[in-house]
Recover the amino acids of this structure.
């Protein structure tokens, strides 16, 4: 197989839907992970100051999962609403 310099290696137009979906999944995953990690660090700092043995870390991890889930749900609803608006403008 010979490389042709005039032919692009990647076509965004052909792969735009796939790329947009991957970026949305990455955004949601990083949002969830960020919430959990932030809450874990807060819980760990409280445990270190109070001398407790991980109870606050556990509590804050659970709060991070719940909070991250709420944020991800809101992001998904916002994306679906944008798609719905875009589809309604395309039809009419």
């Amino acid at each position: 197989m010979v490389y042709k310099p005039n032919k692009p290696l990647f076509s965004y137009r052909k792969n735009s839907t796939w790329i947009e979906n991957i970026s949305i999944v990455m955004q949601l995953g990083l949002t969830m992970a960020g919430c959990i990690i932030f809450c874990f660090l807060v819980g760990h700092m409280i445990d270190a100051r109070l001398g407790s043995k991980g109870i606050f870390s556990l509590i804050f991890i659970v709060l991070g999962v719940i909070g991250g889930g709420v944020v991800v749900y809101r992001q998904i609803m916002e994306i679906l609403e944008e798609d719905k608006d875009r589809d309604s403008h395309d039809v009419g």
